[in-house]
């Protein structure tokens, strides 16, 4: 299994608001710059997305892939793994939310990606950090907006 990268950010929004943004896959192209298209393929018994097909266009990195999501019962986390992809062999990720009180939430993003093409570990971790940093900043802006 590939190594994981982890980053956190504090958001001026309640955890329920942050999770609502994370769970609203059809809106991702509106705020997640690299996400061009999303399609919810399956939902769980609670109506939350179970499988989502994403079309990514981050300049030189383009991919169409499907992720499967597992939502925490307490509403404070979601994990996912790659079902199929073109450029990726594996992806495991997680958003974990912590209620800081006063309408603030700490969002911790953990990500591990294994590409179909070999990549030096240092470069892969740098790319993961860039993806995570951008995703967290965009999530913060959307949740606070």
From TrEMBL:
Protein name from the UniProt record: Cyclase/dehydrase
Which Gene3D superfamilies does the UniProt entry name for this protein?
A: 3.30.530.20
Q: Which organism is it from?
A: Amycolatopsis vancoresmycina DSM 44592
Any signal peptide, and if so, which residues? none
Q: Which domain of life is it from?
A: Bacteria
User: What's the short name of a Pfam family annotated to this entry?
Assistant: Polyketide_cyc2
């Amino acid at each position: 299994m590939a190594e994981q990268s982890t980053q956190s950010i504090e958001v001026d929004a309640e955890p329920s608001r942050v999770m609502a943004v994370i769970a609203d896959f059809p809106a991702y192209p509106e705020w997640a710059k690299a996400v061009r298209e999303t399609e919810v393929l399956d939902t769980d018994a609670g109506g939350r997305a179970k499988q989502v097909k994403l079309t990514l266009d981050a300049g030189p990195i383009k991919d169409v892939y499907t992720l499967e999501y597992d939502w925490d019962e307490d509403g404070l986390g979601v994990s996912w793994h790659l079902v199929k992809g073109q450029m990726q062999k594996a992806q495991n990720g997680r958003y974990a939310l912590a209620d800081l009180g006063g309408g603030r939430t700490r969002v911790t993003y953990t990500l591990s990606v294994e590409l179909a093409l070999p990549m030096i570990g240092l470069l892969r971790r740098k790319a993961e950090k860039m993806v995570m940093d951008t995703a967290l900043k965009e999530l913060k802006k959307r949740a606070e907006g």
